[in-house]
Structure formats: structure tokens, C-alpha cells
């Protein structure tokens, strides 16, 4: 059975520490929904599928998988270098180098890469909270 933030983690943390669940949920939602609707030089792009793939890949790295998500999306949307970067930052942040950072999405803006960092760090925090709760 799935143990998700939305269904279980949020309510449990609110019972243990009132109001923190709301603050954490807002923090996760702000980062998850953050978009300029651009990818590299393309404007007006719906990036929700990409953001969901990154979020779910981070959870997958930590052993959290969802039955209702098609993980084939992850393989279609996330190139190998991006997966390496995500896994390195999420699991071994001390091993992150500029070379790993520059190897993925070479034609993308730094702000888009920073958004990837925000997504993966918040997804990592949520995964850790799910395990702790």
C-alpha cells in the first residue's frame, strides 16, 4: 500500500507537531509548481510532466515507488547525465562537482538547473520525512 505525503505524512506530522504539516506542504507545493513555462529556448511549455518525473525519480532512488505512476516517463524524460546528477546530489552531495553539473542539459539556463536542484532537494526532504513518519 502506498504511504504518501498527501494521504498520510501530512496528517501525521500535524498531529505530532501542529501547523508544521501545513508549512511543509506549502513549501513542497511552491517548489513543485514553480515554472516559467520554458525549457531552454522554448516558451509556452507545460513542464509539469518533467517536474513530476524528477520528483518521482528522487523518491524512487530512496525506495519510494507509486503504483499509479508510469516510470517509463522517467526514462523518456530524464537523460542519463541528469539521472547521474540527481542521484549524486540526492545521495552523495559531497561528491557533486562542477563537471557533473555542466554535463547535463548543456543548452539550458542556470536558473533551470537551479530549479532542478530545488526540486530534487525538496523531494529528498519529503522522502526522508515519509521514512521518519
TrEMBL record:
Gene Ontology cellular-component terms listed: nucleus
Biological-process GO terms, alphabetical: cellular response to L-leucine; cellular response to leucine starvation; negative regulation of TORC1 signaling; positive regulation of macroautophagy; regulation of response to reactive oxygen species
InterPro entries xref list: Sestrin
Signal peptide: none
Domain of life: Eukaryota
Pfam families from the UniProt entry: PA26 (PF04636)
Biological source species: Irena cyanogastra (Philippine fairy-bluebird)
Gene Ontology MF terms: L-leucine binding; oxidoreductase activity, acting on peroxide as acceptor
Coiled-coil parts of chain: none
UniProt cross-references to PANTHER family, sorted A to Z: P53 REGULATED PA26 NUCLEAR PROTEIN SESTRIN, SESTRIN-2
Protein name as catalogued: SESN2 protein
Amino acid at each position: 500500500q502506498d504511504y504518501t505525503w498527501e494521504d498520510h505524512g501530512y496528517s501525521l506530522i500535524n498531529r505530532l507537531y501542529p501547523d508544521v504539516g501545513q508549512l511543509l506542504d506549502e513549501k513542497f507545493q511552491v517548489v513543485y509548481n514553480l515554472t516559467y513555462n520554458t525549457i531552454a529556448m522554448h516558451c509556452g511549455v507545460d513542464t509539469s510532466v518533467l517536474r513530476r518525473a524528477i520528483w518521482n525519480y528522487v523518491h524512487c532512488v530512496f525506495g519510494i515507488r507509486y503504483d499509479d505512476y508510469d516510470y517509463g516517463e522517467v526514462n523518456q524524460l530524464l537523460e542519463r547525465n541528469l539521472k547521474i546528477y540527481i542521484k549524486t546530489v540526492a545521495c552523495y552531495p559531497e561528491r557533486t562537482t562542477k563537471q557533473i553539473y555542466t554535463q547535463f542539459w548543456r543548452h539550458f539556463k542556470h536558473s533551470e538547473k537551479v530549479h532542478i536542484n530545488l526540486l530534487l532537494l525538496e523531494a529528498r526532504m519529503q522522502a526522508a520525512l515519509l521514512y521518519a513518519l
